[in-house]
Design a protein that fits this description.
Elements: E1 6-13, H1 21-31, E2 35-39, H2 50-55, E3 58-63, E4 71-76, E5 81-85, E6 98-103, E7 106-112, H3 122-139, E8 148-153, H4 177-187, E9 192-193, H5 194-199, E10 224-228, H6 230-233, E11 236-241, H7 243-246, E12 257-262
Parallel strand pairs: 1-2, 7-8
Antiparallel strand pairs: 1-12, 2-4, 3-4, 5-6, 6-7, 8-10, 9-10, 11-12
Helix pairs in contact: 3-4
Length: about 270
């Protein structure tokens, strides 16, 4: 009988890595994820805390941007091998929103999808154009014979079951039919939404704004997603959200969201 082994992959919108580095390091020590995608660094390349993360046991690659955006990929005990920086098909797009690398045998695309507010307007148009570029690039990844994950802050509430108050948020860019349509079109390529695969229709959130104790009252949104290609989805064991991180003082408005996966050498137990 093969020994069961798992690997943990997580995504976390840190909402300012400089301000929240202590919380990040504490979570890394407690949760010990093998792969982490970070978003909204809000830091330049030079300000990224590579030394502190290395001391914590994580190699990193990153794409910073002053005050806004910024993405990074971390590997426990290894340095990610970068394969792409930024989505193709728009050389004028200089926003730091996509980073792709091989980490522990998995191709990981870490992304921070545009918010799109206010809508309608240029920011919403940019969001839809970015999603269409993501769709084109994802089509080159989904059918690879290797495990692939697209993870991050998608800034998409897929359905009304993924938000505490769909009526109150109806005009927000995260809920617009065009945005939901692009996300559904992406899934139709063959990607598995890991949280939904594990938890079915259960209410589960990854983001809680800072107003009116929404985190304490669990009035949230599900906008951080982990999408797995068929090869990787076959290895899915569990998925969840570390909501307790959001409830800490001076926390990000997102919580780490994760999956556990069987490693390539592990097999399912056979029934006797």
């Amino acid at each position: 009988m093969a020994r069961s082994r798992t690997l943990k992959l997580a995504t976390f919108n840190i909402n300012g890595i400089g301000a929240r580095l202590p919380q990040l390091l504490a979570w890394l020590e407690q949760a010990r994820p093998d792969i982490v995608a970070l978003q909204e660094l809000k830091a330049t390349d030079a300000a990224f805390p590579a030394a502190e993360l290395e001391q914590a046991g994580y190699g990193a690659i990153w794409q910073g941007q002053r005050s806004w955006n910024g993405v990074a990929l971390l590997g426990r005990g290894t340095v990610p091998v970068e394969s792409r920086r930024g989505l193709p098909w728009d050389r004028s797009d200089t926003q730091s929103r996509y980073l792709e690398a091989a980490i522990h045998g998995i191709v990981v695309g870490g992304l921070y999808l545009p918010n799109g507010n206010p809508q309608p307007g240029p920011k919403f148009d940019y969001k839809l154009a970015w999603m269409r570029r993501l769709y084109r690039h994802a089509a080159t990844l989904v059918d690879l014979p290797h495990p692939v994950a697209l993870v991050g802050d998608f800034n998409v509430v897929p359905t009304d079951e993924d938000i505490y108050d769909p009526t109150g948020w109806r005009k927000d860019a995260l809920l617009q039919p065009e945005v939901r349509g692009e996300y559904a079109r992406l899934l139709a390529q063959g990607w598995t939404d890991a949280l939904r695969r594990v938890h079915g229709d259960a209410r589960i959130y990854t983001f809680w704004d800072y107003f009116r104790q929404h985190a304490e009252r669990d009035r949230g949104l599900r906008i951080d997603h982990l999408l797995l290609n068929p090869v990787l989805a076959a290895r899915l064991v569990d998925a969840g959200v570390d909501r307790s991180v959001r409830l800490q003082p001076k926390a990000s408005d997102h919580a780490p969201t994760w999956v556990t996966l069987r490693t390539s050498g592990a097999t399912r137990r056979r029934k006797a």
